[in-house]
Amino acid sequence: MQILSESIITCRCAQSLYAIKVLRSHGMNDEELRLVFKTVVLAKILYATPVWWGFTSAADRQRIEAFVRRCVWLGLYRASDPTLTQLIADYDDNLFRKMLYSEHHHYYYYYYYYYYFFLLLLIKHLFRVTPSQ
């Protein structure tokens, strides 16, 4: 999916990386640079990933993950921090949990409506009375 995926994201993140390099040249320490990287660049990458990540090809994912590996090499992201795939899986799980358990999420009531509907169909099927002969 070339429409919005990796080319736009990596281009915008590369522009932000240039700004971070400028901050480094002006004397900002490494810990603050990591914080700037996480709040600016990772936020751009992770924005709406539950929507578009499933439509990317393996090559697109490898390019985005290569960008993050490059940031590890630059010292802006630690190798011990979660990988991009782990972060996206965590965000996806959190979204699904919020959808299931938060009464304020707009899909909460739809989920339970369909859950109870199919539960009633299952009960009806299991306890179906067959006519005796």
Question: What does this protein structure show overall?
Answer:
The protein has 6 helices and no strands. The chain is mainly α and 133 residues long. α1 packs antiparallel against α2 and α1 runs parallel beside α4. The protein is elongated and about 75 Å long. The chain starts with 5 loop residues before the first helix and ends in a 7-residue tail after the last helix.
What is the 3D form? elongated
Please trace the helix and strand order, writing H or E for each element: HHHHHH
Total strands = 0
Helix/sheet category: mainly alpha
Radius of gyration: 23 Å
Features:
single chain; mainly alpha; elongated; 133 residues
Write a short abstract of this structure.
The chain is mainly alpha-helical and 133 residues long.
SSE diagram, text form:
Elements: H1 6-25, H2 30-46, H3 49-52, H4 58-73, H5 84-101, H6 108-126
